[in-house]
């Protein structure tokens, strides 16, 4: 023990000396000056003092004041000074992998080290960390997974949870777990950090803990709402200007009838919205629907115009554009690159900032361009709080963000662009005033802003809880509903019950809510359980490739385009991929065709000819890779991929695996004389979406359809579906088939069902038993 202590204190001294040497170098001196200038530095002593006297401390301060990069370093340095540096272990969680990576790299640079020395990071499938790493940045998900095997966080001295104001599902979940852990680990310190925050809520959740506020400073930001922007720029918001907008492929624009209809919609919406005095009195829903003419409030054309105006007329300074999602960012980037001024790399540096960018691209975002070049960054809400670009002077805010929402009553999830909250709008605005007075252009009228919610609803209250419930079970946290009742804000009981019921139906939980073997595997795959299920069985039954495509396809925007004016042509194009009553198999074929074309460098032409979205195809391609690495990570497959594809061309097998994943999304096909009708157990009569390949035939020679999603517009429509036989549904459709479904099987199938039930055998029990041995 004594010898060990000696070694450790020698190591701590060494750390101290190394830092001193770095600080004495000229680059180190420059970094120190930068760090000293951050507002967080002024509160250094107060922060450290609070942490040493309290188990839990909340720290809040304006974005960019130095919370993420400085506070973990303060703790690290004070531990090193106290010669405990070699024994401390600080974990700091970030909601996104990109921030965990970029922040750790930044801190290593500030300390004159390489990543993996004192500072490291760990995100899913990647990480750099060494023997001496004392400060580890990771995603919240990684810490939750560590808790799975290390319930007491042995050896960890400090946990810092960053960006708690975002109220992500994982963060809320982690807080419940940590709150329970604190009494068991009285020496553990917990620091919660946030930009704008409902401090009382967090403080009282932990029983009235102290709050350290870092006073911030931002330069004034001049704010323009849509009406002011129009006045300032002299832009005429006419229908013609707005046609070329989001989501609409330019090729379809030529259709006159379509344009005419859009024109009148747009014109009346704009007129009503901006001209009418009582617009303020309309309900929020009406206001929102008025802006439906463009999913993101304003078209690309307007953003392009505004960027030009800024580049031509305004003082130097970078521009930050907040967009809804990655698809829109890349589409706008393409458009801008073709513009004579904005595409000129000698004058403009055009960058995209999103969750999966390469680190070389990341560095460019922070760098100040030289020689009068103006930097324009197109970003998602990632740049709202977790990434700070210092030289931004102009902000353009589209007002929307993609948000998962969940309707507990209809039990349907959706990922849709929705209006941001007032707090988010303020954050976005604040990004413009970091270095000098700035300007912010909100591309929506003030009255729409007035109707924004103050705060965004926490994720736990607006998303399906299936994955969360699985995690609660895998962490052995007891009864799901009891555990969730301890959350900062608990989700609706109905939502919890739906999730548990679903997990039981798909066989991930048993009747007494314990994880099954399948359930345990699903907890290791961070994706919707139905996708995980499909992938697991696809790997077991050696038809992995097509199933990877189907699972990826279910997670991106539909790649089959259906432009209004070329509907027939588009349908014919889709029909060439479908011969077997399955939208999912049609997608598999389309993807495979694209892959070949892409290999021959004709991917775009292929998409163009076949009415496919090249963007979705690329997204599917990269998701497939991600899914495959996840399967590798869990040990479900090894690197010998060919062996998992020996049955990849057996369409009936693929159909069965799809059924296994999508169950209980099933509907029965009832044939009558000329056509057929469809029924589900919960809704009664339903319809097929007109884009489905199954909507074109008057007969489907199968008794069942499995589907991924229903949407409700007047009546209920099924989007993509795959036809399956009785026996496939029986063998692959979950473990418990409900009574009325079973009774509608033909007698021979019913007999089979009975015999299976009596033998207490259920499909793949051998396979699952095999998996059980691995675990
Ligand atoms: P907060 O967490 O309070 O929002 P940060 O600690 O992230 O603030 O940032 C503090 C400062 O460090 C900001 O001025 C930011 O621009 C700068 N910074 C952060 N990361 C980098 C980086 N990778 N490169 C250059 N500057 C950075
Ligand atoms: Mg931060």
From TrEMBL:
Reaction catalyzed: ATP + H2O = ADP + phosphate + H(+)
Keyword annotations from UniProtKB, A to Z: ATP-binding, Helicase, Hydrolase, Nucleotide-binding, RNA-binding
Domain Helicase ATP-binding: 48-215
Top EC class for this record: hydrolase
GO cellular component terms attached to this protein's record: nucleus
Helicase C-terminal domain sequence ranges: 302-476
EC number: 3.6.4.13
One function term, GO molecular function aspect: hydrolase activity
Family: Belongs to the DExH box helicase family.
Name under which the protein is recorded: RNA helicase
Organism: Artemisia annua
Full-sequence range covered: 207 to 981 of 996
């Amino acid at each position: 023990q004594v010898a060990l202590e000696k070694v450790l204190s020698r190591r701590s001294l060494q750390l101290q000396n190394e830092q001193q040497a770095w600080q004495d170098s000229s680059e180190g001196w420059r970094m120190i000056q930068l760090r000293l200038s951050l507002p967080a530095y002024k509160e250094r002593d107060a922060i450290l003092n609070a942490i040493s006297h309290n188990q839990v401390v909340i720290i809040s301060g304006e974005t960019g004041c130095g919370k993420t990069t400085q506070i973990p370093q303060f703790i690290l340095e004070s531990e090193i000074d106290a010669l405990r540096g070699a024994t401390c272990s600080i974990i700091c969680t970030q909601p996104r992998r990109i921030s965990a990576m970029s922040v750790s790299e930044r801190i290593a640079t500030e300390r004159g080290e390489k990543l993996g020395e004192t500072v490291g990071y760990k995100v899913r499938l990647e990480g750099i960390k060494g023997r001496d790493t004392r400060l580890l940045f990771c995603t919240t998900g990684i810490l939750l997974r560590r808790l799975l095997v290390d319930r007491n966080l042995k050896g960890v001295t400090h946990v810092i949870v960053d960006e708690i104001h975002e109220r992500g599902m994982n963060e809320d979940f982690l807080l419940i777990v940590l709150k329970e852990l604190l009494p068991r680990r009285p020496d553990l310190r917990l620091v919660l950090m946030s930009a704008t925050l409902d401090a009382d809520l967090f403080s009282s959740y932990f029983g009235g803990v102290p709050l350290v506020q870092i006073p911030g400073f931002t330069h004034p930001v001049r704010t323009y709402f849509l009406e002011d922007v129009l006045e300032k720029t002299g832009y005429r918001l006419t229908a013609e200007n707005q046609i070329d907008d989001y989501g609409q492929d330019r090729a379809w624009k030529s259709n006159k009838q379509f344009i005419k209809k859009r024109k009148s919609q747009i014109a009346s919406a704009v007129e009503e919205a901006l001209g009418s005095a009582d617009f303020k009195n309309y309900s929020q829903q009406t206001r929102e629907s008025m802006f439906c003419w463009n999913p993101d409030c304003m078209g690309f054309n307007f953003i392009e115009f505004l960027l030009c105006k800024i580049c031509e007329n305004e003082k130097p300074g970078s521009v930050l554009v907040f967009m809804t999602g990655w698809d829109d960012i890349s589409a706008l980037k393409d458009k801008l690159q073709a513009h004579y001024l904005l595409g000129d790399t000698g004058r403009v540096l055009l960058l995209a900032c999103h969750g999966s960018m390469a680190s070389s691209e990341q560095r460019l975002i922070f760098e100040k361009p030289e020689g009068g070049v103006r930097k324009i960054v197109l970003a998602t809400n990632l740049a709202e709080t977790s990434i700070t670009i210092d030289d931004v002077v102009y902000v353009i805010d589209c007002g929307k963000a993609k948000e998962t929402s969940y309707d507990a009553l209809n039990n349907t999830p959706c990922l849709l662009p929705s209006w941001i909250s007032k707090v988010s709008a303020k954050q976005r605005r604040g990004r413009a005033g970091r270095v000098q007075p700035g300007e912010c252009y909100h591309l929506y009228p003030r009255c729409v802003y007035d109707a924004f919610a103050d705060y965004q609803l926490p994720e736990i209250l607006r998303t399906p809880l299936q994955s969360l419930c699985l995690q609660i079970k895998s962490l052995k946290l007891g009864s799901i509903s009891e555990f969730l009742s301890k959350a900062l804000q608990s989700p609706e009981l109905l939502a919890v019950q739906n999730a548990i019921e679903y997990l039981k139906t798909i066989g991930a939980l048993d009747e007494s809510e314990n994880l099954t073997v399948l359930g345990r595997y699903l907890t290791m795959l961070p994706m919707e359980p139905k996708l995980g299920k499909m992938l697991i069985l696809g790997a077991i039954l050696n038809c992995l490739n097509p199933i990877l495509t189907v699972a990826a396809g279910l997670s991106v925007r539909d790649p089959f385009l259906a432009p209004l004016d070329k509907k027939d042509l588009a349908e014919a194009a889709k029909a060439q991929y479908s011969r077997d009553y399955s939208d999912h198999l049609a997608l598999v074929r389309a993807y495979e065709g694209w892959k070949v074309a892409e290999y021959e460098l004709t991917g775009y032409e292929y998409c163009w000819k076949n009415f496919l979205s090249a963007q979705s195809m690329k997204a599917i391609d990269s998701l497939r890779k991600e899914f495959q690495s996840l399967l590798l990570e869990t040990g479900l497959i090894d690197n010998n991929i060919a062996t998992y594809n020996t049955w990849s061309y057996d369409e009936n097998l693929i159909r069965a695996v799809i059924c296994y994943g999508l169950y209980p999304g099933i509907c029965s096909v009832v044939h009558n004389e000329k056509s057929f009708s469809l029924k589900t157990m919960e809704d009664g009569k339903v319809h097929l979406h007109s884009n489905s390949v199954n909507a074109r035939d008057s007969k489907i020679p199968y008794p069942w359809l499995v589907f991924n999603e229903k949407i409700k517009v007047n009546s209920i429509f099924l989007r993509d579906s795959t036809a399956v036989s009785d026996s496939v549904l029986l063998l692959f459709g979950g473990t418990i088939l409900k009574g009325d479904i079973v009774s509608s099987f033909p007698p021979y199938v019913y007999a089979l069902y009975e015999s299976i039930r009596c033998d207490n055998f259920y499909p793949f029990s051998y396979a699952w038993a095999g998996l059980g041995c691995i675990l």
